[in-house]
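Thread: Newbie trying to understand structure tokens

Hi all, I'm a second-year student working on a class project, and my supervisor (Dr. K.) asked me to get a predicted structure for one chain before our next meeting. I've only ever worked with sequences, so writing a 3D structure as a token string is new to me. If someone could post the tokens and maybe explain what I'm looking at, I'd be very grateful. Here's the chain:
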Amino acid sequence: MARQESSENPGRLKQIALTYQMTKRVDSKVGLVVAAVGIVTLGVLLAIGFAIGHPVYLGLLGFLLAFLAMAIIFGRRAERAAFGQMEGQPGAAAAVLENVGRGWTVTPAVAMNRSQDVVHRAVGKAGIVLVGEGNPNRLRSLLSSEKKKMARIVVDVPVHDVIVGDGEGQVELKKLRTTLMKLPRVLPGGQVTVVTDRLRAMGDLMSNMPLPKGPMPKGMRMPRGGRMR
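---
Reply by user tm_fold:
Sure, no problem. This is what the structure looks like when written as tokens:
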């Protein structure tokens, strides 16, 4: 057990270090902000401890709360930096959807045109969510076509559509996960499985092509005929 824990800790520390380096490239003040949060939190608890005559107890509590506050602030700024780096890259929405959490089945690139406008599909207790990224005007026809296809295969299942972007009526990439989680849960778990199986049986654009994790390569093109090369 001791050997196993010692082998896991270096991996975690390395991951934290890499995350910090990535964040610092985008957010140069992350170290100062996190340190300031820890110092202020510890200082406030120590001051309260001296005021009430229990500096040791409040000092220990302050240390724990300071560590927790630093972890929360660092996590938020790291997440913001990651979204900032992904934003605008093809396939960024698919990368976010893959990390939405349990209860969702995600199929990247169920529809795509030659301009690399793409539609991803997520199925969960909220129903079917079609997420488009690319040019909003061209995406409307893609989303409309996919919604009609859904209506022919699954009946009485809500189909939501989302366009990722920063324009009016669009959802920012960093808010995509929150948007999905806020959708009302209307399907029981068993029905979600049935819907997922039906959609898988239908097939999709990428069913015969392995899709790499993360944003799609910028050189990917949709040739004439609608088949990927």
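A couple of things are worth pointing out once you decode it. Residues 55-86 form the longest helix (32 residues). The radius of gyration is 23 Å. Feel free to ask follow-ups in this thread.
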